[in-house]
């Protein structure tokens, strides 16, 4: 097959354009990676781009010095895995119920859910509620209050609603219960939307620290993000105490807040980056499934 | 509720266990039995079980458990509000005056004055004539901060106009007093060295709007730092942004601009981007306080570019300016301790604080333990060399030892002296000078000074800084509006090509600020300030 000059030049320009686009997207992260491995005082001078100028592990050493980090990391993984699994399960069950036209309270419950997206009690009443439910200073405060997100329910519900009605009807004819219809018929063909929501929820759990800050003051319930936040604040505090002269210039030489920030970003992003490729195939599948609709 | 129960339990248990070995009916009167209080802190690394804290606990029986409140000011405020609403606050809250007044209004605080009368003789003694300033309008004392007993300039204070060492060297170490002298020196240097490491030399720069336009103009006029305001001798508050000296300073920036010496990015620089340029050594001079300069200077030292470090002078518009900018206030703390309703036996907290207000307590919180952290050499306290080295090697050392803790805020101030005639804190001129690198020592020798603080004027006592008072209710909104006009119009003046253009821009700028409610704002603050002065005079002239 011969290709015309137009085809070739189109490909060349296309690939160049895409490569440039890729570079633009990847660069900020590469830059952070370089800064995190670069001597912090050198970073302060600027001129760090894709590779570190003066390689050092000091930034990581400072971050990992905190002994509570391992415990917090385990808790973070636990809340992410458990929280995501439960949350996706509950969201899918609710979404399935609401997607069934024969369900009597479909309209009022939809309305309640949507109203709750726009109106909420505010932070203090929420705190009082959680406290009166006895959930402060427990692990479950990370999981239960955020179990259902209306936004996710609506996304899954819309997906369920456009599945062919015949699938469910024929399953019913075969004598399947609603539970087995959901788990054996609906969910297997809804993997694209489920994996999307899984990623949303997992990232949310992984990067959340504010619930920890509000509800749990015990150190043995700290999650990773909260501990990292503390390290960041600590390094910023150090700069201001440096200004008072109690700490002299040489102390700061270990790290700067900018370098700590870059290091933390890298540490926090890594797990997500590793998980993403495994979920990505479903995203692509989701797109192709969409393309074949009549 | 559970926590309250737990605290009560701990308290009763501890009193019981003590009652076992002591007299029988001592429920509240036991003075040294162990008690544990929860206390809030904004520093997540604070430790309650340090060597020094244990020493103080041995003397007072009081122990602490820190409850961290982290995040920015907004997040901290949220946490405080939630605590207040749910009554989950710790026994002691350590926070800013605005938050404390919220707790007071919410009825969460226990007044301290009766307890201080009974248990706090040293607190009263040290506050002296300023004691009544602690009182709220209703006569109660709701919170306690430090008292500043320093009569000299703390050794770490320094001027904020900075000039690179190399510039001074080439000019033959001249005495620079005025902005025009600085201009000449800079111009000579830039003409000779238009580029540095292949990049353009920047004669003068700044970091952020306030440090570029406002603070330097107030400083060059020799006025105390009341933020964006100044106060005249009749206690009238004026907005600094439209004052004559601000116009003069804009004129100086305009002159730099027309000579091509002003940083081209000056309007968009922030602390971080300015730090980068400072660390590259490309900026010759500017207005940079120590907290901006610290990082870049250590970077310069690490790179061996010690001739690019900065000399810190005060500078004025002309030789006739009288410098009143070096000021001392009765209290330097922005954060105070307040005792909440959750605290049992509040008198124990007062007793604890009273101990901190003794010379023995002061030595412990600032100097540490004799023989471990400091020695007494010829009657003077000197921090041990190994302690200095530890501080350099380990940023957490001060916290881990207990030399930096919630107690630190009750220090009498750097430069203050204890009754034995020696300094209350290790931050002395000798200690500061000992930390300078050789290049800095050389420069200072040329000027016959020991530390940068020596360049400053004599400290003057003022009742308070304006920004230490609670802002009047509607002032923030007006200031926001003025700020917009300020940030939009100021570049026009600085970029003006002719004097006529400059004047026209200035007039339109002043007009816009007037329209935003400048007079109203001044009036509100004047009222507030005069109220404070009245209280101040009443309290101190008794």
TrEMBL record, chain A:
The keyword Transcription regulation does not apply. Keywords: Cell membrane, Membrane, Transmembrane, Transmembrane helix, Transport. Residues 73-279 form the ABC transmembrane type-1 domain. One of its GO terms (biological process) is transmembrane transport. The keyword Cytoplasm does not apply. Its main location: membrane. GO terms for cellular component: plasma membrane. The chain crosses the membrane at residues 12-35, 69-96, 108-127, 139-160, 181-206, 260-279. It is found in: Cell membrane. It is a multi-pass membrane protein. It holds the Pfam family BPD_transp_1. Belongs to the binding-protein-dependent transport system permease family. This is ABC transporter. It comes from Paenibacillus pini JCM 16418.
